[in-house]
Amino acid sequence: MTNSALIVGASGIVGSATAALLVEQGWPVAGLARTPADQPGVTPIAADLQDPATLATALADVRPSHLFITTWSRQASEAENIRVNAAMVRNLLDALRPAGTLRHVALVTGLKHYLGPFEAYGQGVLPQTPFREEQGRLDVENFYYAQEDEVFAAAASDGFAWSVHRPHTIIGQAVGNAMNMGTTLAVYATICRETGRPFRFPGSAMQWNALTDMTDARLLARHMLWATQTPAAANEAFNVVNGDVFRWSWMWSRIADWFGIEAAPFDGVVRPLEAQMADDAALWADIAARHGLAEPALQRLASPWHSDADLGRPIEVVTDMSKSRRLGFTTYQATDEAFFALFEQLRANRLIP
Question: Which among 23, 104, 191, 256 would be 20 to 30 A from 93, CA to CA?
């Protein structure tokens, strides 16, 4: 049976990694975005998931066997996140229903499934770590749950299989992405190197000292492909992390060494990147001009608010991968090497000097 993919959010961190993997595997790939990027081997589709009429028109001749949903739209409140993001998934599945070709839908969410939404991030009674898939939902409103419910309802009526993928903080490249710790830290380290500022860990003592993990976008792409090809993975939700654990007290020095700077000693004071980088737009534009960089707009590269949310958590966050391991997914990625690979890619693409 021939496979073909529609990747929603194809220009984002996860979407672009998934597109590259599927093209490499020989799949026909279409990539949907409001403003599609030029991606080798990907047929671009320009559409707005919040506009059902134009979405249906854009997808009228698209007949994918596999759908990868790798995008979301950040709103001002969780109630709006739920309303908008659930509608986006519903509109998408409604537009694809007439073709009747879907066999598998993969939805990317994340560990806010266990931690709660940004409005209540890490608050209240939380599951014990490591997080396990059987721990289920928190008793709070969460747009991830609303997205899942749209997929579950459509699967029940339309007969396709599904998988839900819950990464931790994702390492990968995308310009204009709302949640991008790897590039944010690369930009911050570059600014520290260029100005002589101390390279200070911005987060909490808990995150500095506790064990944690992360997710390489390339590994996440491989996990989604694996789920589509593994019958036992159908209609299951999975955590997806690299397979190693680390402490930021170790990783911070590793990142500093890559950029040729010293990591400042951590004194336990939380110094959010959002405050540290608040006035750096003009400085970054100057750095970009001096080094001939491709993106002079700081806000299109860095998302300090998201990095602060992750690095400021007052709790340990470690993820269990046993469910995937038992079913045969054994891919591993060292997290420090994932950061270094990203930094090399950013340099090659002239996004950092």
Answer: 23
